[in-house]
Amino acid sequence: MILYTPLAETDIFPVSEADLQKRHCVSHNGKQLYVEEMEDGQFQLLQVLSTDPNDFMNTDYIPGTILR
After folding, report:
1. Can you give the residue range of the structural domain that contains 33?
2. Which pTM value belongs to this model?
3. Which end of the chain, N or C, is less packed with Cβ atoms under 10 Å?
4. Model confidence over 21-31: pLDDT tens digits?
5. What is the full DSSP assignment across 13-29?
């Protein structure tokens, strides 16, 4: 099923307060990223925060990527 909406994912699928504490905005190689801290201390990329369209074409910043 595909849901087309202007709402954010968290407005449709709410997350718990504990999950929100694990999410951070970080700078990685000069790029602003929204990540979630995993159990082992690594970070999983959730969103690229950029106004440069080339940042979204970079395969190093695909959502779900594990950052070390």
Report:
1. 9-67
2. 0.70
3. N
4. 888 899 999 99
5. S---HHHHHTEEEEEET
